[in-house]
Write a structure and sequence with these properties.
It is built from 5 helices and 7 strands, in the order βαααβββαβαββ. The chain is of the alpha+beta class. A 7-stranded mixed beta sheet has the order 1-2-3-4-5-7-6, sandwiched between helices.
Length: 180
């Protein structure tokens, strides 16, 4: 297998990531709800189909945790957070996530995601992985602007979106959430 691996995320992964999360990701999560990221991440990992991406070496902590929440039979809401070290691994992390998106698309032909309008790395990440910005919504206790992104499974029919060769893989089964 490659240099990076994806597996089902655990609560321990969530807490590890929260200690090393990018400050702008922490702000994004906390401004959206008014709750600490640790509370939200533990809840998200426990209730969602959630995945950790880490370097392929023993004991490597997660660089990114992402997941999908069930909205309806064909619609999932995707979320993610990354560590400050993730930027140094961006290309490889995109490759790993791109493989997983084929499986996400099979479970949820349509997906949405929200990103803090101030989090430029998150906005770019979503666009590179095939989401399109649709509208700005005010959210959270402070009414801050978040961009709503949408994505459909047919995004892969555009060869320009197949950034890294589009290798197909299998998501690990988590046993939680509806997308597993």
């Amino acid at each position: 297998m490659g240099r990076y691996r994806m597996r089902a995320a655990t609560v321990a992964d969530a807490l590890s990531l929260c200690r090393r999360v990018r400050p702008v990701d922490r702000r994004e999560w906390e401004d959206a709800t008014g709750l600490k990221i640790e509370e939200q991440m533990v809840g998200a990992v426990s209730a969602s189909a959630a995945f950790a991406i880490h370097e392929d070496r023993p004991g490597a902590p997660p660089l990114v945790i992402w997941g999908v929440d069930f909205v309806s039979n064909h619609l999932g809401q995707v979320w993610m957070a990354a560590t400050t070290d993730a930027i140094h691994h961006a290309i490889h992390l995109h490759e790993t996530m791109e493989e997983a998106l084929f499986i996400l698309d099979a479970a949820y032909p349509h997906s949405v995601a929200y990103a803090d309008a101030r989090n430029h790395v998150h906005l770019h990440w979503l666009e590179r992985l095939g989401w399109s910005a649709k509208q700005t919504v005010q959210t959270g206790p402070k009414g801050l602007p978040y961009i709503q992104f949408e994505r459909s499974a047919d995004v892969w029919s555009n060869p320009r979106r197949r950034l890294y060769g589009g290798r197909r893989g299998k998501l690990p089964r988590t046993g939680t959430g509806s997308a597993s």
